[in-house]
Write a structure and sequence with these properties.
Elements lengths: L1 H24 L37 E5 L6 E5 L8 H21 L9 E3 L6 H7 L12 H11 L3 E9 L3 E8 L4 E5 L4 E3 L5 E3 L8 E5 L22 H11 L10 H10 L9 E4 L3 E5 L5 E3 L7 H17 L6 E3 L7 E3 L3
Parallel strand pairs: 3-5, 6-9, 9-10, 12-13
Antiparallel strand pairs: 1-2, 4-5, 6-7, 7-8, 10-11, 11-12, 13-14
Length: about 350
Protein backbone atom coordinates (compact mmCIF):
# COMPACT_ATOMS: atom_id res chain seq x y z
CA UNK A 1 0.00 0.00 0.00
CA UNK A 2 2.80 2.34 0.82
CA UNK A 3 4.44 1.71 -2.46
CA UNK A 4 1.21 2.54 -4.36
CA UNK A 5 0.80 5.88 -2.59
CA UNK A 6 4.36 6.80 -3.31
CA UNK A 7 3.97 5.87 -6.90
CA UNK A 8 0.72 7.92 -7.27
CA UNK A 9 2.39 10.98 -5.76
CA UNK A 10 5.32 10.72 -8.12
CA UNK A 11 2.92 10.46 -11.01
CA UNK A 12 1.04 13.55 -9.89
CA UNK A 13 4.22 15.48 -9.55
CA UNK A 14 5.24 14.52 -13.00
CA UNK A 15 1.90 15.64 -14.47
CA UNK A 16 2.19 18.98 -12.67
CA UNK A 17 5.76 19.40 -13.92
CA UNK A 18 4.74 18.71 -17.52
CA UNK A 19 1.93 21.30 -17.31
CA UNK A 20 4.25 23.96 -16.03
CA UNK A 21 6.75 23.22 -18.75
CA UNK A 22 4.12 23.33 -21.47
CA UNK A 23 2.91 26.73 -20.28
CA UNK A 24 6.44 28.12 -20.45
CA UNK A 25 6.87 26.86 -24.01
CA UNK A 26 3.65 28.56 -25.36
CA UNK A 27 4.88 31.66 -27.33
CA UNK A 28 3.39 35.03 -26.28
CA UNK A 29 1.29 36.91 -28.90
CA UNK A 30 2.65 40.11 -30.36
CA UNK A 31 1.50 43.26 -28.53
CA UNK A 32 0.97 45.36 -31.71
CA UNK A 33 -2.12 43.58 -32.99
CA UNK A 34 -5.58 45.11 -32.67
CA UNK A 35 -6.87 42.04 -30.92
CA UNK A 36 -4.59 42.33 -27.93
CA UNK A 37 -3.75 46.15 -27.69
CA UNK A 38 -5.78 47.92 -25.09
CA UNK A 39 -7.49 50.97 -26.51
CA UNK A 40 -6.78 54.19 -24.65
CA UNK A 41 -9.78 55.69 -22.95
CA UNK A 42 -10.55 59.51 -23.05
CA UNK A 43 -11.69 60.90 -19.78
CA UNK A 44 -14.23 63.73 -19.99
CA UNK A 45 -13.53 66.45 -17.46
CA UNK A 46 -16.31 66.76 -15.00
CA UNK A 47 -16.93 70.14 -13.37
CA UNK A 48 -18.49 70.16 -10.02
CA UNK A 49 -20.49 73.20 -8.98
CA UNK A 50 -20.31 73.83 -5.38
CA UNK A 51 -22.92 76.15 -3.93
CA UNK A 52 -21.78 78.46 -1.14
CA UNK A 53 -22.63 77.35 2.22
CA UNK A 54 -25.77 79.24 3.29
CA UNK A 55 -25.30 81.54 6.19
CA UNK A 56 -26.86 80.40 9.30
CA UNK A 57 -29.50 82.84 10.49
CA UNK A 58 -29.18 83.40 14.11
CA UNK A 59 -32.71 84.01 15.22
CA UNK A 60 -31.77 84.08 18.80
CA UNK A 61 -33.20 87.28 20.19
CA UNK A 62 -31.47 89.42 22.71
CA UNK A 63 -32.63 89.00 26.21
CA UNK A 64 -33.13 91.60 28.94
CA UNK A 65 -32.96 90.66 32.57
CA UNK A 66 -35.50 92.54 34.71
CA UNK A 67 -34.87 92.36 38.44
CA UNK A 68 -37.82 91.45 40.61
CA UNK A 69 -38.63 92.51 44.13
CA UNK A 70 -37.30 89.26 45.55
CA UNK A 71 -33.60 89.34 46.18
CA UNK A 72 -31.65 87.53 43.47
CA UNK A 73 -34.76 86.95 41.34
CA UNK A 74 -34.78 88.16 37.74
CA UNK A 75 -37.21 87.98 34.84
CA UNK A 76 -35.79 87.42 31.40
CA UNK A 77 -37.67 89.24 28.57
CA UNK A 78 -37.05 89.60 24.88
CA UNK A 79 -35.54 92.96 23.91
CA UNK A 80 -36.53 95.11 20.96
CA UNK A 81 -34.58 94.34 17.77
CA UNK A 82 -31.74 96.64 16.84
CA UNK A 83 -32.54 98.91 13.89
CA UNK A 84 -29.84 99.65 11.34
CA UNK A 85 -30.29 102.92 9.40
CA UNK A 86 -28.70 102.94 5.95
CA UNK A 87 -28.36 105.70 3.34
CA UNK A 88 -31.33 104.41 1.39
CA UNK A 89 -33.59 104.60 4.39
CA UNK A 90 -32.37 108.11 5.25
CA UNK A 91 -32.81 109.41 1.67
CA UNK A 92 -36.28 107.90 1.46
CA UNK A 93 -37.27 109.58 4.71
CA UNK A 94 -35.99 112.94 3.43
CA UNK A 95 -38.00 112.57 0.21
CA UNK A 96 -41.15 111.83 2.16
CA UNK A 97 -40.51 114.79 4.43
CA UNK A 98 -39.97 117.13 1.45
CA UNK A 99 -43.14 115.88 -0.20
CA UNK A 100 -45.10 116.51 2.98
CA UNK A 101 -43.69 120.05 3.23
CA UNK A 102 -44.66 120.82 -0.38
CA UNK A 103 -48.18 119.56 0.20
CA UNK A 104 -48.47 121.69 3.32
CA UNK A 105 -47.27 124.78 1.42
CA UNK A 106 -49.87 124.25 -1.30
CA UNK A 107 -52.80 123.26 0.88
CA UNK A 108 -52.56 125.61 3.87
CA UNK A 109 -53.97 129.12 3.59
CA UNK A 110 -51.10 130.39 5.74
CA UNK A 111 -48.80 130.02 2.73
CA UNK A 112 -51.08 131.89 0.28
CA UNK A 113 -50.27 135.47 -0.74
CA UNK A 114 -52.80 138.00 0.52
CA UNK A 115 -50.75 141.21 0.68
CA UNK A 116 -47.47 142.56 -0.66
CA UNK A 117 -44.90 144.96 0.78
CA UNK A 118 -44.24 147.79 -1.69
CA UNK A 119 -41.07 149.85 -1.19
CA UNK A 120 -39.86 152.96 -3.01
CA UNK A 121 -43.27 153.98 -4.40
CA UNK A 122 -44.92 157.38 -3.90
CA UNK A 123 -47.72 157.40 -6.46
CA UNK A 124 -48.45 153.66 -6.52
CA UNK A 125 -49.87 151.49 -3.75
CA UNK A 126 -49.45 147.81 -2.97
CA UNK A 127 -53.20 147.27 -3.26
CA UNK A 128 -53.24 148.53 -6.86
CA UNK A 129 -50.29 146.38 -7.90
CA UNK A 130 -51.74 143.31 -6.17
CA UNK A 131 -55.07 143.78 -7.96
CA UNK A 132 -53.42 144.01 -11.38
CA UNK A 133 -51.06 141.04 -11.00
CA UNK A 134 -51.62 137.30 -10.65
CA UNK A 135 -50.45 137.05 -7.05
CA UNK A 136 -53.53 137.05 -4.85
CA UNK A 137 -54.25 133.61 -3.39
CA UNK A 138 -51.22 131.90 -4.91
CA UNK A 139 -49.02 129.55 -2.89
CA UNK A 140 -45.69 131.11 -1.98
CA UNK A 141 -43.80 128.08 -3.28
CA UNK A 142 -45.31 128.54 -6.78
CA UNK A 143 -44.06 132.13 -7.22
CA UNK A 144 -41.13 133.01 -9.48
CA UNK A 145 -39.62 136.44 -8.75
CA UNK A 146 -38.37 136.98 -12.34
CA UNK A 147 -41.82 136.38 -13.81
CA UNK A 148 -43.41 138.69 -11.24
CA UNK A 149 -40.95 141.48 -12.12
CA UNK A 150 -41.78 141.18 -15.82
CA UNK A 151 -45.50 141.19 -15.09
CA UNK A 152 -45.29 144.29 -12.88
CA UNK A 153 -43.22 146.28 -15.40
CA UNK A 154 -45.50 145.24 -18.25
CA UNK A 155 -48.70 146.32 -16.54
CA UNK A 156 -47.26 149.44 -14.90
CA UNK A 157 -45.12 151.36 -17.45
CA UNK A 158 -44.80 154.18 -14.92
CA UNK A 159 -42.29 152.00 -13.04
CA UNK A 160 -38.69 152.07 -14.25
CA UNK A 161 -37.61 148.94 -12.34
CA UNK A 162 -38.94 146.33 -9.93
CA UNK A 163 -37.06 143.94 -7.66
CA UNK A 164 -39.15 141.09 -6.20
CA UNK A 165 -38.20 138.89 -3.24
CA UNK A 166 -40.31 136.17 -1.58
CA UNK A 167 -40.12 134.55 1.83
CA UNK A 168 -41.98 132.26 4.22
CA UNK A 169 -44.73 131.86 5.12
CA UNK A 170 -46.28 134.20 2.50
CA UNK A 171 -44.11 137.30 2.27
CA UNK A 172 -43.73 139.17 -1.04
CA UNK A 173 -41.63 142.35 -1.15
CA UNK A 174 -41.43 144.53 -4.29
CA UNK A 175 -38.91 147.36 -4.47
CA UNK A 176 -39.76 149.76 -7.29
CA UNK A 177 -38.35 152.90 -8.90
CA UNK A 178 -40.96 155.24 -10.36
CA UNK A 179 -40.52 157.18 -13.59
CA UNK A 180 -40.46 160.96 -13.24
CA UNK A 181 -42.64 162.74 -15.83
CA UNK A 182 -41.34 165.88 -17.58
CA UNK A 183 -44.06 166.35 -20.26
CA UNK A 184 -47.85 166.37 -19.96
CA UNK A 185 -49.14 165.11 -23.32
CA UNK A 186 -52.73 166.19 -24.03
CA UNK A 187 -54.27 164.28 -26.95
CA UNK A 188 -58.00 163.92 -27.62
CA UNK A 189 -58.89 164.15 -23.96
CA UNK A 190 -56.48 161.34 -23.01
CA UNK A 191 -53.66 162.93 -20.99
CA UNK A 192 -50.42 161.00 -20.53
CA UNK A 193 -47.08 161.60 -18.90
CA UNK A 194 -43.74 161.33 -20.73
CA UNK A 195 -40.39 160.93 -18.99
CA UNK A 196 -36.93 161.85 -20.31
CA UNK A 197 -36.52 158.42 -21.94
CA UNK A 198 -39.67 158.94 -24.00
CA UNK A 199 -41.83 156.41 -22.14
CA UNK A 200 -45.51 157.40 -22.05
CA UNK A 201 -47.62 156.19 -19.13
CA UNK A 202 -50.98 156.96 -17.51
CA UNK A 203 -51.30 159.72 -14.95
CA UNK A 204 -51.38 158.32 -11.40
CA UNK A 205 -51.22 160.69 -8.46
CA UNK A 206 -49.58 164.10 -8.76
CA UNK A 207 -46.27 165.26 -10.18
CA UNK A 208 -44.76 168.47 -11.50
CA UNK A 209 -43.94 168.60 -15.22
CA UNK A 210 -41.81 171.06 -17.18
CA UNK A 211 -44.08 171.43 -20.23
CA UNK A 212 -47.59 170.78 -21.43
CA UNK A 213 -48.13 169.82 -25.08
CA UNK A 214 -51.46 169.87 -26.93
CA UNK A 215 -51.27 167.32 -29.77
CA UNK A 216 -53.55 166.27 -32.59
CA UNK A 217 -51.86 162.90 -33.07
CA UNK A 218 -49.34 160.46 -31.62
CA UNK A 219 -45.72 161.57 -31.16
CA UNK A 220 -42.91 160.12 -33.30
CA UNK A 221 -42.54 156.46 -32.41
CA UNK A 222 -39.32 155.11 -31.00
CA UNK A 223 -37.46 152.62 -33.24
CA UNK A 224 -38.87 149.11 -33.11
CA UNK A 225 -36.69 146.82 -30.98
CA UNK A 226 -35.14 143.64 -32.37
CA UNK A 227 -37.47 141.57 -30.19
CA UNK A 228 -40.46 142.62 -32.31
CA UNK A 229 -39.00 141.74 -35.71
CA UNK A 230 -36.41 139.01 -36.16
CA UNK A 231 -36.12 139.35 -39.93
CA UNK A 232 -32.72 139.55 -41.53
CA UNK A 233 -31.64 142.70 -43.42
CA UNK A 234 -33.07 142.79 -46.92
CA UNK A 235 -36.11 140.73 -45.95
CA UNK A 236 -38.15 143.44 -44.22
CA UNK A 237 -41.89 143.42 -44.71
CA UNK A 238 -43.45 146.93 -44.62
CA UNK A 239 -46.86 145.57 -43.65
CA UNK A 240 -45.44 143.67 -40.68
CA UNK A 241 -43.41 146.71 -39.61
CA UNK A 242 -46.53 148.86 -39.69
CA UNK A 243 -48.39 146.28 -37.64
CA UNK A 244 -45.57 146.29 -35.09
CA UNK A 245 -45.71 150.07 -34.84
CA UNK A 246 -49.50 149.98 -34.46
CA UNK A 247 -49.09 147.38 -31.74
CA UNK A 248 -46.88 149.78 -29.82
CA UNK A 249 -49.58 152.43 -29.97
CA UNK A 250 -52.52 150.10 -29.48
CA UNK A 251 -52.76 150.96 -25.80
CA UNK A 252 -51.48 154.07 -24.04
CA UNK A 253 -49.27 152.05 -21.72
CA UNK A 254 -47.22 150.77 -24.69
CA UNK A 255 -46.51 154.20 -26.26
CA UNK A 256 -42.95 155.36 -26.47
CA UNK A 257 -41.29 158.22 -28.31
CA UNK A 258 -37.65 159.13 -28.84
CA UNK A 259 -35.56 160.90 -26.17
CA UNK A 260 -34.48 163.42 -28.87
CA UNK A 261 -38.09 164.47 -29.38
CA UNK A 262 -38.49 164.95 -25.62
CA UNK A 263 -35.41 167.16 -25.50
CA UNK A 264 -36.75 169.17 -28.46
CA UNK A 265 -40.02 169.86 -26.59
CA UNK A 266 -38.16 170.89 -23.44
CA UNK A 267 -35.99 173.28 -25.47
CA UNK A 268 -38.96 174.72 -27.37
CA UNK A 269 -40.95 175.49 -24.22
CA UNK A 270 -38.56 178.32 -23.39
CA UNK A 271 -39.80 180.28 -26.45
CA UNK A 272 -43.52 179.83 -25.98
CA UNK A 273 -45.23 183.16 -25.23
CA UNK A 274 -46.93 183.60 -21.90
CA UNK A 275 -50.48 182.32 -21.82
CA UNK A 276 -49.86 179.88 -24.70
CA UNK A 277 -49.23 176.10 -24.65
CA UNK A 278 -46.81 174.10 -26.76
CA UNK A 279 -48.58 172.40 -29.70
CA UNK A 280 -47.67 169.41 -31.85
CA UNK A 281 -48.82 168.58 -35.36
CA UNK A 282 -47.80 165.42 -37.21
CA UNK A 283 -47.21 167.38 -40.43
CA UNK A 284 -45.58 170.60 -39.16
CA UNK A 285 -43.94 169.57 -35.88
CA UNK A 286 -43.76 171.66 -32.69
CA UNK A 287 -45.15 175.13 -32.24
CA UNK A 288 -47.75 177.05 -30.29
CA UNK A 289 -50.90 179.11 -30.50
CA UNK A 290 -49.90 182.73 -31.02
CA UNK A 291 -51.73 185.20 -28.75
CA UNK A 292 -52.95 186.96 -31.90
CA UNK A 293 -54.89 183.87 -32.94
CA UNK A 294 -52.92 181.83 -35.47
CA UNK A 295 -50.76 178.70 -35.15
CA UNK A 296 -47.04 178.75 -35.73
CA UNK A 297 -44.81 175.66 -36.17
CA UNK A 298 -41.01 175.31 -36.18
CA UNK A 299 -40.46 171.64 -37.06
CA UNK A 300 -39.58 168.61 -34.94
CA UNK A 301 -36.68 170.13 -32.99
CA UNK A 302 -35.30 173.41 -31.78
CA UNK A 303 -32.40 173.62 -34.24
CA UNK A 304 -31.89 177.20 -35.52
CA UNK A 305 -34.78 178.30 -33.34
CA UNK A 306 -33.26 181.77 -32.83
CA UNK A 307 -33.00 182.35 -36.56
CA UNK A 308 -36.50 180.97 -37.14
CA UNK A 309 -37.93 183.30 -34.52
CA UNK A 310 -36.39 186.34 -36.21
CA UNK A 311 -37.77 185.21 -39.55
CA UNK A 312 -41.15 184.63 -37.95
CA UNK A 313 -41.27 188.19 -36.64
CA UNK A 314 -40.39 189.48 -40.10
CA UNK A 315 -43.20 187.45 -41.70
CA UNK A 316 -45.75 188.62 -39.12
CA UNK A 317 -44.79 192.28 -39.65
CA UNK A 318 -45.15 191.91 -43.43
CA UNK A 319 -48.57 190.25 -43.13
CA UNK A 320 -49.84 192.92 -40.77
CA UNK A 321 -48.78 195.67 -43.22
CA UNK A 322 -50.84 193.93 -45.91
CA UNK A 323 -53.74 193.36 -43.51
CA UNK A 324 -53.51 189.59 -43.80
CA UNK A 325 -54.48 187.43 -40.83
CA UNK A 326 -53.09 183.95 -41.38
CA UNK A 327 -54.44 180.77 -39.88
CA UNK A 328 -51.06 178.96 -39.86
CA UNK A 329 -47.40 179.92 -40.33
CA UNK A 330 -44.75 177.21 -40.84
CA UNK A 331 -41.02 177.73 -40.41
CA UNK A 332 -40.11 174.04 -40.40
CA UNK A 333 -37.74 174.64 -43.32
CA UNK A 334 -35.74 177.82 -42.85
CA UNK A 335 -35.29 178.38 -46.60
CA UNK A 336 -38.94 177.74 -47.44
CA UNK A 337 -41.34 179.28 -44.89
CA UNK A 338 -44.99 179.65 -45.78
CA UNK A 339 -48.37 180.67 -44.35
CA UNK A 340 -51.95 179.58 -44.85
CA UNK A 341 -55.15 181.54 -44.61
CA UNK A 342 -57.05 178.37 -43.71
CA UNK A 343 -55.85 175.39 -41.74
Amino acid sequence: MADRRTESLNRADKVRARRQQSQKQVPSRPTGTNTTRKQPTHRVPVTRRTSPTPRMVNRQQRKVNVPLKSKGAELQLSAFPRLKFGWRLISGALCLLSFAVIISFIGFSAFEVNTIDLEGAQRYSGTVILSQTDLLGKAIIALKPNEIEEQVLERFPGLASADVSVGLPASVTIKVVERQPVILWQQEGNPLWIDEEGVMFPIIGEAEVQAEVIANNDPPAAPVSEDITDEEPGESNPEEENEALLALFNEPVFRRTTPEFVQGMLAMINYVPGGSALAYDTEFGLGWQDPQGWLVYFGMDSNNIETKLLEYQTIVAALQEDGIIPALISLEFLDAPFYRLEQ
